[in-house]
Amino acid sequence: MSEQTWLVVGLGNPGEKYAGNRHNVGAMVVEELARRAGTSLRAHKAGARAESTRLAPPGGGLGPRVVLGVPTAYMNVSGGPTKALASFFSADVDHLVVVHDELDIPFGEVRLKQGGGEGGHNGLRSITSSFGTKDYLRVRVGIGRPPGRMDPASFVLKDFSSTERPELPFLLDDAADAVELLVHRGLTDAQQVVHAPRP
To answer: FRET label pair with 73: which of 12, 46, 131, 151, CA 20 to 30 Å apart?
Structure first.
């Protein structure tokens, strides 16, 4: 049986204007994974920046084939480029991991799940529409709720605050670790590690 290819897609909006936004944290995580793998994302005809690599397991060795991708389309049409990458690299939907910002999780926390609703997230809604299923894996990167009466749509399009920014590298690290665990050990084992209470 041929080796299954994983597709790990980080969501965000393209361009410098949005690069530091909370909504782009998924793309930041995928960039961190590329850095760890000693590679960088390159323009791909699917409408994304992407690179095929291997994520080495703990202790070294040859990890599974993983395509890292960030759509270069806007968030609400992420599904088209993601589906095109999946088709180009022959990645099945059960090996699709979508990394995205999550309002319903406190800043600094990471959660893993498969399927479920989109929670008003336009990127997820677009991917669900393109694949015709909600049954893909998600790495949910907590950005917390907006303060006061701020509109969530405005909140996600703002950069991380001055108090959050020093913690952001740790959040990106934790989320990248979660992706690697998911790919190497599967959802249940990865959840037990990622969701465990912090000491």
So the answer is: 151
Helix axes 25-36, 168-185, angle to 10 degrees: 70
Q: Is 76 annotated as belonging to a binding site?
A: yes
Question: Which residues are CB-neighbours of 131 under 8 A, at least 6 positions away?
Answer: 79, 82, 83, 86, 93, 96
Q: Which residues are catalytic?
A: 23
147-to-46, 109, 110, 197 alpha-carbon distances in Å: 37, 18, 20, 25
Length of the chain: 199
Pick the CATH number of 6-194 from 3.40.50.1470, 1.10.3430.10, 3.30.450.40, 3.30.365.10: 3.40.50.1470
Residues 94-122: tens digit of each pLDDT:
999 999 999 999 999 999 999 998 888 99
Scanning the structure block, which residue is given the tokens 């399927």?
115
- C-alpha distance from residue 111 to each of 56, 132, 187 (Å): 22, 23, 11
- Per the annotation, does 18 bind a ligand? yes
